[in-house]
């Protein structure tokens, strides 16, 4: 079985509501306000941010567009864009899960919507080549999940039939897209529950 990991929220910390609350205490007082601001800022990873994810616009351009669209200051928006790499901290429990899956003989890949500057940061900061046989960053192929083409690119890159791929992602739309292409997939909510699911599928021992 080939196991495919999403990155943000699965391998690396990504919780936009609390992230924005920490960065913008002058603007956000509660997690509810943080969630609302994140929905406006990231547009569910479509819109301006989706273009950034696809590598179609630069960091400077996404700052300009978000500031123009929202009325938030360029300084505030730029602070968020600059801070994302530090926010993408490795989740220790997932690092252990990756180690255990590799020790069990599974081949691992990744499939991540990730703007080019952040993809470069992760590749420099972590031994991705040791953990994963191969992977696809959206900004490198100019596509994003949940598009069918993004999954088709991954299938070609990974070199096995879709039925041999098991995908872990924290967004339901991405899980549904994988299932529609005959991948195996389940929604990642936390590492402990993912481990239980992998044990139930007899991919890990209890």
TrEMBL record:
Keywords: Hydrolase. One of its GO terms (molecular function) is hydrolase activity. It comes from the Bacteria. The keyword Hydrolase applies. The keyword Hydrolase applies. InterPro entries: HAD-like_sf, HAD-SF_hydro_IA, HAD_sf. PANTHER family: ALPHA-D-GLUCOSE 1-PHOSPHATE PHOSPHATASE, FLAVIN MONONUCLEOTIDE HYDROLASE 1, CHLOROPLATIC. NCBIfam families: HAD-SF-IA-v3. This is Hydrolase of the HAD superfamily. The lineage of its organism: Bacteria, Pseudomonadati, Pseudomonadota, Betaproteobacteria, Burkholderiales.
């Amino acid at each position: 079985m080939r196991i495919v990991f999403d990155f943000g929220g699965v391998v690396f910390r990504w919780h936009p509501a609390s992230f924005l609350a920490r960065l913008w205490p002058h603007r956000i007082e509660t997690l509810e306000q943080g969630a609302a601001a994140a929905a406006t800022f990231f547009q569910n990873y479509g819109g301006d941010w989706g273009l950034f994810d696809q590598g179609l616009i630069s960091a400077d351009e996404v700052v300009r567009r978000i500031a123009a669209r929202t009325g938030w200051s360029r300084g505030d928006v730029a602070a968020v864009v600059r801070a994302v790499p530090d926010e993408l901290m490795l989740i220790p429990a997932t690092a252990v899960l990756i180690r255990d899956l590799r020790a069990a003989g599974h081949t691992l890949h990744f499939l991540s919507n990730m703007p080019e500057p952040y993809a470069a940061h992760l590749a420099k900061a972590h031994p991705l080549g040791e953990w994963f046989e191969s992977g696809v960053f959206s900004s490198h192929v100019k596509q994003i999940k949940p598009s069918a083409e993004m999954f088709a690119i991954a299938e070609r890159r990974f070199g096995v039939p879709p039925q041999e791929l098991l995908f872990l992602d924290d967004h339901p739309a991405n899980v549904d897209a994988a299932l529609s292409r005959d991948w195996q997939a389940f929604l990642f909510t936390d590492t402990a529950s993912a481990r239980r699911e992998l044990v139930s599928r007899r991919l890990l021992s209890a």
